[in-house]
Amino acid sequence: MKPLTDSVPKALVPIAGRPLLAYHLKAMKQAGIRRVVCVVGYLGDRIREYVGDGTSFGLKVQYASQPVPNGTGGAVLAARDYVRSNPFAVLYADVFFQPMGATWASVLGDDSGAMLCAEVRDTSQFGRVITGDSARGGVVKRVVEKDGRNVPGLVNAGLLLLPKKAMGYLEMAKPSPRGEIELPAIVEPMNRGGEAMRVVSVNRWTDIGTLSALEFAQTLVEGTEHT
What we know:
Elements: E1 14-15, E2 18-19, H1 20-30, E3 35-40, H2 44-51, E4 60-65, H3 72-78, E5 88-91, E6 95-98, H4 100-107, E7 114-120, E8 127-134, E9 137-145, E10 153-162, H5 166-172, H6 187-192, E11 198-202, E12 204-207, H7 211-222
């Protein structure tokens, strides 16, 4: 994403003239969310300046700091003192999908845990999702983190609904070989505890990790309403 991200965090890169995070904040409001915790690290001051206390988005926004990038699970743990609701939603702030509002509503559809999943041709650079069946439909059995296998399949699309006790699973999670606490590491312990996450599928999705992905996000906006 360089040189764009030399001065702008990925959460604020512009898509069709609006920062990526603005799409999500608007969708959160539409979905009935009232409180948001932004976990900030690299260029976090830019996010604080843009979002402020959330008033302009109709939300109450607080901030937690992740000074060392120790993984997605580490980011969630950084926000644990602010989490009050059960369940609570977790968003990876560098993903984009359409339709935004309807997708958020599907993930928040009931109180059971959920993971947004997208079908891609090459899962090698993502968390590959292994699914199973239950009486309620598809569930997430486990997530294989970036194993380099160039195969099609479902991937973790970066929006989850978790029970509050997920914090306990994260506290017990072992760091990955990269030394990070990965949020998907709690999937199997949650399954053993009888709290499987349902699969919510999204078709129009991208991870904003490259300039070409940013261009693709632009096409998603151009093909749909700004929801």
